[in-house]
Specification:
The chain is α+β, with helices and mostly antiparallel strands. The chain contains two helices and eleven strands. It starts with a helix and ends with a helix. The protein binds 2-acetamido-2-deoxy-beta-D-glucopyranose. Keywords: Signal.
Length: 196
Amino acid sequence: MKFVALSAIAAVVSADSFCDGQRFCVYGTGTSSSVTITVHAAASGWAGVGIGTEMTNSQLFVGWQNSTKGYTLISAKAPSQVQPTVDSPLKLTQVPLAVPAPSWAKLAYSFSTSVSGISQSTNIIWAYSNSPPSSNIDSPKAQFAQHQATGTTSGVNLLTTGSTSATPAASTTTSGSEGLIAGSVALANILYAFVL
Ligand SMILES: *[C@@H]1O[C@H](CO)[C@@H](O)[C@H](O)[C@H]1NC(C)=O
């Protein structure tokens, strides 16, 4: 019984990640029907992540700091490399920051979504700019400038596998980043201590 409890806790706190040095990281946790995605970016303007291999027709998620230091988050799509068209209704819900921001991050936000295409091997594009939207920063309709940095990566596991198989904590995160595994295991151990 105690072992099952530990596995369930580990599945909740672990998240896989992709980082491009100390300038962009994306984390995912959850199931394909509801995944929580966290973005950390070294840019001060806006930062976004997309599900796919190129900007065109990919589901995009973009965020920037608003006038009260919260975040305006949008989901959007672009038919080509132009200003994306904001989804109506939005395909995301802002949630409290799920992964603590490192010191280099100037933007850090989390959202949940249930769009298709997010899997245990997700193709990701990312982009950011140091220029915030020039006006309407509290509105999803704000116009933001073209990206200054972009990247692409494949095979990122943005889902946690769940706890039904009751696998040990360490093996549920074998493809995660080392630091995060250590953090998850440490937290699981602390919680495990409480279970004991
Ligand atoms: C800024 O974003 C936060 C959510 O992060 C929201 O609660 C707040 O109302 C927003 N501020 C404005 C002025 O819209």
